[in-house]
C-alpha cells in the first residue's frame, strides 16, 4: 500500500425534481485538507485511494477499478473491475472476484455477509442480485424484480462491460445502475424497476421480503413532460434519508435542473437539493456532513459538504466516494 501526502488548498410525480428551494451556489471553502472521522475511499485515474486527511494511500494498481463501497463492519471494500464484482480488505489486500456476471454499483448487507449488485434481469432490464461475500464460488440470487426470483438466471454476456459510455457527464451517469441496501436490510434502492413500464426513467425502493416496489423519482412518460434520471442512491446510516444523483430537462429553461444531489426523507417523502450544481454521488459522513463528487479546479474532486449550509470544502481529487463506517 503506497502512501502519498498532499495538501489541497405516495410521491409527487408531477415534477420529478426537488421539492424545496434552489441549488446552493456556495463556492468551495479555501482551507487545508479537512480531517475526516473515518477513511474515505474514492477513485482517481481508475484506481482506488483512501484517506482521512492530508495523507492518501493507493489500494489498487493498473486502472479499471470503480465504485468502491466499504462494508458496514469497515473491514472490507466491494468494488468493480472491468465491470465485474470484486472484494478486498480495507487495506487493499486479499483481492477476490466474486462472480463473472457483469455487475454494477455494489452495496453490502448490514451484517457484511453478502453484497447486492445490479445486472441483467429476466425482464431484459436492470435487476438486483445478491451474492455471498464469504462463500467461494457462490451463485448470485435474484432480489428484484420479484417475478424473476423463480426464473433461471439470464445468460452471462460473453465479455463484461469494460468501458464507460461515451458522451457528457450526464450521459455517462444516466445508465449507472448502482444500488443501495438499507441499513436495516429490509429495502434496496435501485434505478429502474416496474416503474419503467410507465416512465422513461425512475428510481425505486424495493422491499426485500415482499418484492413490492415504490417509485420515489420519475421522469418522462405518463403525465410527466420532463426527461432526466435519478441514479446512485445512498442511505444515511440511520435509514431516515436517502440521497441520489439527479438531472432534469424540462419543457422550459426554468424547469431545467443540472446535475445535483437530492435528499429524500423516507418518512415524509419530502425532497431537497443539497450541495451545488454538478455535485453527485453523495455518501454520508454523519447526519450533518457528506462527501460528494464535485467540480473544482476544472476536474472532479471529493468535496466535504455541510448538509445544512451547503458549504463545500475540497478533500482530494477523485470521484465515487465511500465512507468507512465508524466502529
TrEMBL record:
Q: Which InterPro entries match?
A: 6-blade_b-propeller_TolB-like (IPR011042), WD40 (IPR011659)
Which keywords label this protein?
Answer: Signal
KW Nucleotide-binding (keyword) present: no
Q: Known Pfam families for this protein?
A: PD40
Span of the secretion signal?
Answer: 1-31
Asked if the keyword Transcription belongs to this entry, the reply reads no
Member of which family?
Belongs to the TolB family.
Q: What is this protein called?
A: WD40 repeat protein
Taxonomic lineage per UniProt? Bacteria, Bacillati, Actinomycetota, Actinomycetes, Micromonosporales
